[in-house]
Design goal:
It is built from 18 helices and 10 strands. It is globular, with a radius of gyration of 24 Å. Helix 11 (249-269) runs antiparallel to helix 12. The protein has 3 domains: 8-105 and 217-364, 3-hydroxy-3-methylglutaryl-coenzyme A Reductase, Chain A, domain 2, CATH 3.90.770.10; 108-211, Hydroxymethylglutaryl-CoA reductase, class I/II, NAD/NADP-binding domain (Alpha-Beta Plaits, 2-Layer Sandwich), CATH 3.30.70.420; 369-417, Orthogonal Bundle (Helicase, Ruva Protein, domain 3). It has a 4-stranded antiparallel beta sheet. The chain has a 4-stranded antiparallel beta sheet with strand order 5-6-4-7. The protein has helices at residues 13-24, 28-35, 41-47, 83-95, 121-130, 132-141, 144-148, 183-201, 227-230, 232-247, 249-269, 274-285, 320-324, 326-335, 340-362, 368-382, 387-400, 405-417; strands at residues 59-67, 70-77, 101-104, 108-116, 152-163, 166-176, 204-211, 218-225, 295-299, 305-312. With 418 residues, the chain is of the alpha+beta class. Bound molecules: (R)-mevalonate. The site of (R)-mevalonate has 9 residues, from helix 11 and helix 15.
Length: 418
């Protein structure tokens, strides 16, 4: 597959779909689903409760991504203008010096078991740790298929914490989820292990649930942006922007939000749980203490800008909406990933690309010019401009720096008179 497609953005949506379909070898049915009704109401009715319909979100494809030497077209589902363009531009700059290098840890999630009413927390913790293998055996009996594929419960951790309700023992079941996001497997295992843990500790178990702070399941990405491409001023600008976020939580929230613009768009496109990823990313940013940027930047020996990111990547390819939503399935095919870890690596690369693009724009010309161009098109459409007049109206709105609905209506009126 090739991901460097100059002029991709200038094509019609239909032409882009045809091109992506050929690159990803999509079937006619998959192409039809992408370009038409993605999810039928009947399918939606089997996914959640009280269904009355579906809501469409634009699906774009970011180009130029080179990740560990492999070209990837990246589907992104988002309502926000500029996100897909920003990612594609950053990926184009990154690929000139080799693209993104990514590393992904084993897909290990944490199941938490909360033990309350314990008289001797130290002894309870010791008892749990001494019976690790029995607890792991009970957990693994719940999911022989996962175990067969090399996954399953692998280890136990135990911590005593002080809470408003007194001391608690928190037992962590570490579960290798392979290509599943893992919430179902982990929650089932945590529930199954609970009675044994109560017996061992003499305490009472309350919560048995996965943790979204997936510190054992992270992806890292790194990329170099040449100073000759972006200019020395932009190198300083991005370093200053990073330093700002690292020292100021108000800025850091927006810095990390920008990262998630890219990450969540891919998570959504692949039918994964956006809230799990968002919760994990922001908590990881504050872990072990103090809310920090998920990315880092520095200058290398020759003065080029190096960017890096690490974030939890609790995503799956089997189970959940990924396995049943026809558009999500097609998106996984476009990405060409075979494992959840590969998808995790792509999320890290996209997060870094998105963040670099934002900081580059913010520290140079600002983001409003680009935003306004796209916003102006939306306003033109809202004003009722027919397809052949949308660009004309938008252009005039942008030139006049009055991107407003009332002005769009006036311009349209004038154009119609002409
Ligand atoms: C907007 O959705 C995202 C940005 O605000 C991110 C950032 O400020 O880094 C542009």
């Amino acid at each position: 597959m090739k991901s460097r497609i100059p002029g991709f953005y200038k094509l019609s949506a239909e032409e882009r779909l045809k091109l992506v379909g050929e690159e990803a070898e999509l079937s006619d049915e998959e192409t039809e689903r992408l370009g038409g009704t993605g999810l039928t109401v009947e399918q939606a009715d089997r996914m959640i409760e009280n269904v009355i319909g579906t809501i469409e979100v634009p699906l774009g494809v970011a180009t130029n991504f080179l990740i560990n030497g492999v070209d990837r077209l990246v589907p992104m589902a988002t309502e926000e203008p500029s996100v897909v363009a920003a990612s594609s531009n950053a990926a184009r700059l990154a690929r000139r010096l080799g693209g993104f290098t990514v590393e992904v840890s084993e897909p290990v999630m944490i199941g938490q078991i909360q033990v309350c009413n314990i008289s001797d927390a130290g002894a309870a913790k010791k008892a749990v740790l001494e019976h690790k293998s029995e607890i792991i055996r009970v957990a693994n009996e719940q999911d022989p298929v996962l175990v067969k594929f090399g996954g399953g419960a692998k280890d136990i951790e135990a911590r005593v914490i002080d809470t408003l309700q007194g001391e608690m023992l928190i037992v962590h079941l570490l579960v290798d989820c392979r290509d599943a996001m893992g919430a179902n497997a982990v929650n089932t295992m945590a529930e199954a292990a609970a009675p044994m843990i109560e017996e061992l500790t003499g305490g009472r178990v309350f919560l048995r649930i996965i943790s979204n702070l997936a510190v054992h399941r992270t992806a890292r990405a790194e990329a170099i942006f040449s100073k000759d491409d972006i200019g020395p001023d932009a190198v300083e600008g991005v370093l200053n922007a990073y330093a700002f976020a690292a020292s100021d939580p108000y800025r850091c929230a927006t810095h990390n939000k920008g990262i998630m613009n890219g990450v969540s768009a891919v998570v959504l496109a692949t039918g994964n749980d956006t809230r799990a990823i968002e919760a994990g990313a922001h908590t990881f940013a504050a872990y072990p203490e103090g809310y920090k940027p998920l990315t880092r930047y520095w200058k290398n020996d020759v003065g080029d800008l190096v960017g890096a990111i690490e974030l939890p990547v609790a995503v799956g390819l089997i189970g959940g909406a990924t396995a049943v939503h026809p558009v999500a399935k097609a998106c996984v095919k476009i990405l060409g990933v075979k494992t959840a870890s590969e998808l995790g690596g792509i999320l890290a690369a996209v997060g870094l690309a998105q963040n670099f693009a934002a900081l580059y724009a913010l520290s140079t010309e600002g983001i409003q010019r680009g935003h306004m161009r796209l916003h102006a098109r939306n306003i033109a459409v809202m004003a009722g401009a027919p397809t052949e007049l949308v660009d004309k109206v938008a252009q005039q709105l942008a030139d006049e720096k009055k991107v407003r609905l009332d002005r769009a209506r006036e311009i349209l009126e004038e154009l119609r008179k002409d």
